[in-house]
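Notebook, p. 212. Picked up where the previous page left off. The plan for this session was modest: take the two constructs that came back from the sequencing core last week, fold each one, and keep the raw output in the notebook itself so nobody has to go hunting through shared drives later. Recording the first one now, exactly as returned: residue sequence, then the structure token string.
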Amino acid sequence: MDMNAIARFHHTPDSLRLMDSERAKATIRYTGFLAQDVEKAAESIGYDFSGVDKPQHERDNYSLRYAEFVVPLVKAVQELEEENEQLRAEKDAEIADLKARLSKIEALLEK
């Protein structure tokens, strides 16, 4: 995390910065999503995602509320499971059809 960039963005004077804490924080590798990317992805599919907090003024920044990801992710898993079940059923039907056809061919060859 670039603590100097954050301080510049928020116009935080050095006198208010906790340099030891910032140095410690700067060594941690953080993972997550970029709020702007999440916003763009949601907009591209026409989804009004409440988990993106947009800046309210020029000194504000984007943020994400990760708890808001739970419901759409659960819904997506449910939709994928439904699709997966349908594909399994189609595959099973196709396999049954192929087995029946193979049995007929084998029966003809035995004659």
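Okay, moving on. Second construct, recorded in the same format:
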Amino acid sequence: MAAITNRHLFVLLARLALAGVFVTAALPKIEDPVAFAHSVDAFRVIDAGLSNWIALCLPWLELVLGIGILVPAIRRASGALIGLLLLLFITLHLSAWARGLDISCGCFGSETGHASADYRWLILRNLLLLGAVILVLKQDRRNNIKDSCS
């Protein structure tokens, strides 16, 4: 068995954090898609009909990707899609902030009592998660290169 280095431990923790965040974010939205549809609609970038479809599909995608980041066979694809979602979320938060919208992001389902968003925190959190994705993808690429040279 190969020795676990600090780098491998850090990458493992990054994968676990990404999985935890995406699964934790997905479950309440799967449980209450109507509330999530209202959160999606509040961003005012798509019509209500499309908001409903996103509210039904996005949480399941987040759940699959959150689990997928832990599965070696689909880790790279899951990581790449998580990265794209995080870029989309950052863009949506920047857009809402620039337009002066004072809304709940709906990131972890219905956030009762939190009608407004701290956009700086939301953007920072997503940038940190994006950094974790990059770390995981870089390590996975290194491992694939190392395995192909062996």
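Notes on construct two before I forget. DSSP finds five helices and no strands in the chain.
Flagging for discussion at group meeting.
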